[in-house]
Amino acid sequence: MKPVFVSFAFLVLCVALNSAAFAKRFPSNDESDDELALATRNNFGETCTRVSVCDNYLVGTCRKRDQSLLVSALDLTRVMANIDGELKLRRRTLSDDEAQEVRSEMRRRGSDYQLTCKDYSFKGTVLSATCQQRNGQWKPTSIDLNSKISNIDGQLTYDV
Q: Cyanovirin-N domain: from which residue to which, for each copy (predicted)?
């Protein structure tokens, strides 16, 4: 239970640090709600600021349709894995039960990206790390999260 509490506390800290962005408004935008919704699909980098990776969460301050701002977080464990030294996005988001089951199996097989990747960096929308391959060697890898993560009315969401 302690690791869950520590992760939750870390997420709260990340969100609190990100909340300072609420004071800075985005420039006004004349797009309609429908156009804004389309513009943000697979493109959270255009409408979210102060985006960072804290623990296993992608955290950002994202614009809603009404132009207000919302701090949002997405659990990357549910959407990403280390596949033989490469960061890969899953085909779908895992439920709570599935995520717990998969985490246990990935730990057993050594493919949990949190346990088998190190030296993380995040620039723009690209997450880079050094991840362990099945043969034990370490390999630099990166993934553009913008390709599958969207801002839907202020919420970071994973596109299936």
A: 43-158
